[in-house]
Amino acid sequence: MTRFKRPALIGAAALACVSVMTGCGGDSGSGSSSGGSKVITIWDQEQSAKDIAQGYATVVKQFEKEHPGYTVKVETFPFAQYRDKMLVAMKGGTGPDVMTLDEVWTPEFAAAGLIQPLDDQIKGSDVIKQDDFFKGAWESNQYQDKTWGVPLNFDVWEEMYYNADLFKAAGLDPDKPPTTWSEWNDAAKKLNNPPNSFGMGLIGCKDESSSVMTDSLIFSNGGEILDANGDAAFDSPENVEAYEQYQGLLDYSPNGSAGACEQDVVNQFTAGKAAMILDGSWQQDTMKTAAKFDWRIALPPAPDGKDFVGALGGWNLAVNAKSDNSDLAFQLIEELSKPDNQAAVNSLIPALQSAGEKFVNDNRKQPEVILDALASGRPRPASPVYPQLSQIQQSAVQDIIGGADVKSTLKDASDQMQEVIDSNS
Amino acid sequence: MPPTVRNADVSISVAERLAPGEAPDQAVAREKRRHHRQTALRVLCIVPPIALLGALVVYPLANAVYLSFTKSSFINPDPDWAGLANYQAILTSDTFLTVLKNSLIWTVAVVAAQFVLGLASAILLSQKFKGRLVLRSMVILPWIMPGVIAGVLWKLLYDPYLGPVNAVAGGLGLVDGNPAWLGQASTALAAVIIAAIWKGFPLSTIMYMASYQGVPNELREAARSDGANAWQVFLHVTLPAMAPTIRTTVLLTTVWTFNYFDLVYVMTAGGPGTSTEIFPTYIYREAFQNVRYGVAGAYGVISVVLLSIFTVVYLRQLNKSGGLD
Amino acid sequence: MSATIARRRATRQAGVYVAAAALAVFVLGPIFWLVTTSLKPRSEVFASPPKFLPTELTFANYADVLTPDTLQFFANSVIVCLGTTVMCLAFSLLACFTLTRTGTRGRKPILVGVLVSQLLPQAVLLVPLYRAADTLGLLNSRFGLMVAFMTFTLPVAIWLLRGFLMAIPLELEEAARLDGLSEFGAYWRVIVPLAKPGVAAVGIYVFFMAWQDFMYSLVFLTDASKRTLPLGVLALIGSHTIEWGQLMAVSALLLVPILLVFTFAQRYFIAGLTAGAVKG
């Protein structure tokens, strides 16, 4: 009775194999997920403000009116999973026609051939003019002398948020926040009153915020991650000083900086636990609802005798290299880049200078501080392996929090970065 | 061991009775035909599920094995043959040892605690007391909560100054100061392990509750009337009767825990440093953040091999005790 | 009844209550925090020392998350998870017919193979599965998602179900055969009904495994109208901010209907168990 069984099982296995082969053997390599040429899709991360969906709806309606016969589909995804979703889809040969990309992803998507250069279309565009955009925002699109996207929004890490009530209680003048690193250290020390409150809340968990926040310390001290040749320069004396400053401030910060992400530090601040934190202008919305004390912002302190330099961040609109509709995709980007529309689909500062300045002046407390910080900013390295470099940087930050020697930690990290760069060139 | 050993030949003994007026050789022929039909039916039943599983899993597995011998990156997506280079690099790296060590501690601690807690709570919830039905329903809550939510929630609980864990523990005089459970390498792994135990043990509870109540009360009564005390009854009657469920549940929770990703990812992302980095988080990092499919594949293969070794050893033990029959 | 026995019983009962209280604190403590956070205004979510009860009770978070979208996501979750449960139970009951016959050769390798299929980490599965689903036209479809869910539900279901079925005494099957039922008939009409509590337990397991998933839903579904609830919940975790109150509110809502389902299923579950125990 068992004679049938083995062949049957082999048959089952074969059937499974066949269904797999036919299913997955060939390179599907189909075009964009829009399939037919009459639908344009755009993907964005889910932004917290509720009216963003409404903003998109208005823009889409306008676009569809101007392009009869075409429909636009807007799909948004949770931020933390957005890159995963896009990676899987685009690596699988599908994906949207237009997508928003974090500016630190733009070079790698460009280098991988997943998005297309837009120089020709921008040259012929009546709407998109380089000079209308914040300089730092536009630069974040440049990779290997081509333009890979159009900036959607833009901001800088960071301003210094401080609790004026705690300043007063510590005998400090809340109208004169620290401007130099040595004043900063003094203020942090005076404000430090554990466990009731601490001088400085510091981000240090294992994500991008640890890199970009400490970048501003590096940049302010004249350091950089990569040198002009694109080689690792992470262990420069300037960077060592910057991270020693960071390590020194840890004495006046709440326990567990290595587990503190951006939100945790904001919570420390709004709960009155941390007297000062470094964060971007976007947190003002949170402060308005959550901080029940006199909170203010200031340009963060700089090394003695130097000027503060922030680290830029923002999102770009890019076109899928496999889009069947690149022209229409670009036209959709143009529609989204009109000042009113750009403001409507943004909860961050619009990347157009006019719209951006208006946004800051209308929505933010102490707008002049934000505009100063924006003007100071430098982008993070435009490297196709940036996410890997950043992870090495995050590990270094965590080691430094754990008490490791700054100089040797940065040396190791720099060597690892160089290894990644070499293995990808 | 079940009281009766299942045996296909039972059916023969039933069918071997002769029909009225039937010659023995006719009966044998009838029996053969019946056997063929029976075999065909058995094959027919097993093929669709296995084919489906095969289709879903064989290709990804083969794909991972192939990729593990190649090198590719986000910007150079075409895999180049790399031989054993990925394995060589991994097996000689410190990170691998850390990941291996963390994974072992994580799996053993979580599975052991889930077993003990699951069994204890199953027995408890089978006793009669007021509020039993409510508690029985409530106990499932951690398990049905999506892992990401549970991770965010536990991160709030553990917050050194703003979370209730330190507030309660401090109030009871159990901790001094405001330890950052997730923010220091010495306690982060233990902290995520506790969250994982909380998240996962209700599954064991349900399984053991079903199994516990399936043990015939007559068996216990008999042992009691033979003078066994409660502990002896549990050890010699209840536990052996529950053994098949326990074996399966422990095996499944082991596999499940080893590959469980969400909690660690949300709570620490593997940090501080690499102190909570386990196989699934590290594989995710390599596959989705670094986009090194070769390295991710090799880690995936190593992880499957480790689990397979465990499974085979475990099943061999199980087989010895008749659990696979 | 003697006084010692009465006293012993009282002690034992007190012990049961202490243990039940400890279990309740461990299980419900975090859930309590979730609920209480969902009822706090943003300014009270984080305080030092933490506030165990909101001083200012608000239902605004619930009002904010109870949108048509949330209900749509919820309906999607129910549809997908029910479909997954039915599909998975059907396949595993079929498989278990063969796998519970000791006469079947190759049954052990199949069982081991089924288990091995469960060993792959999800990060390794996602990209190839996505490509396969793309080719088969199963992307962006609820059915495709149900099929993908088989990767992590079917192996476990087969294993668990087989355990429950094997626990039914063989004599019962023999008796059914003597009554003239075929092998499959005896399995389907006698053994499977007797194992109902087990089938229910496995069904619950499958349903909730599917209920928790977000990774497959994220990768396989693109249309917002088809998304499952966990994805809707994740939307509240933004790039720079987390909507704590709303996140906790929708998470709490996510649990309530399931709690009801389970409470209902449990009645059946327990009734089935007693029936099974008597016959055993």
Describe what this molecule looks like in 3D.
Chain A is built from 18 helices and eleven strands. Chain A has helices at 5-24, 52-66, 79-91, 106-111, 119-123, 135-139, 164-169, 181-191, 208-220, 237-249, 262-270, 284-290, 326-336, 339-344, 353-363, 367-376, 386-401, 406-423, and strands at residues 39-45, 71-77, 98-102, 142-143, 146-147, 150-157, 159-163, 198-201, 274-279, 295-298, 311-319. In chain A, helix 2 links the parallel strand 1 (39-45) and strand 2. In chain B, helix 4 runs antiparallel to helix 11 (230-258), helix 9 (185-214) packs across helix 11 (230-258) and helix 10 (217-225) crosses helix 11. The longest helix of chain B has 45 residues, at 24-68. Chain C folds into two domains: 1-58; 59-279, Orthogonal Bundle (MetI-like fold), CATH 1.10.3720. Chains in contact: A-B, A-C, B-C. Chains B and C meet through helix 1, helix 2, helix 4, helix 5 and helix 6 of B and helix 1, helix 4, helix 5, helix 6 and helix 7 of C.
Give a short overview.
With 325 residues, chain B is mainly alpha-helical. Chain B has 14 helices and 2 strands, in the order H-H-E-E-H-H-H-H-H-H-H-H-H-H-H-H. Chain C is built from 13 helices and no strands.
Q: Extract low-pLDDT stretches of chain C.
A: 271-280
* Silhouette of chain C: flat
| Share of residues in strands of chain C | under 5%
Greatest chain-chain interface?
B-C, 106 and 112 residues
The CATH homologous superfamily of the largest domain in chain C is named MetI-like
What is the average of the pLDDT values of chain C?
Answer: 85
Sheet having the most strands of chain C: none
Summed up, the domain count of chain B is: 2
Please estimate the helix content of chain C: over 70%
Based on Cα principal axes, name the global outline of chain B. flat
> Percent of residues of chain B in beta strands?
under 5%
C-alpha-based Rg of chain C, rounded: 24 Å
CATH topology annotation of the largest domain in chain B: MetI-like fold
In the CATH hierarchy, what is the architecture of the largest domain in chain B at level 2?
Orthogonal Bundle
What sequence of helices (H) and strands (E) makes up the elements of chain C? HHHHHHHHHHHHH
Mean pLDDT rating of chain B: 86
Radius of gyration of chain B in whole Å, from Cα? 26 Å
In CATH terms, what is the fold-level topology of the largest domain in chain C?
MetI-like fold
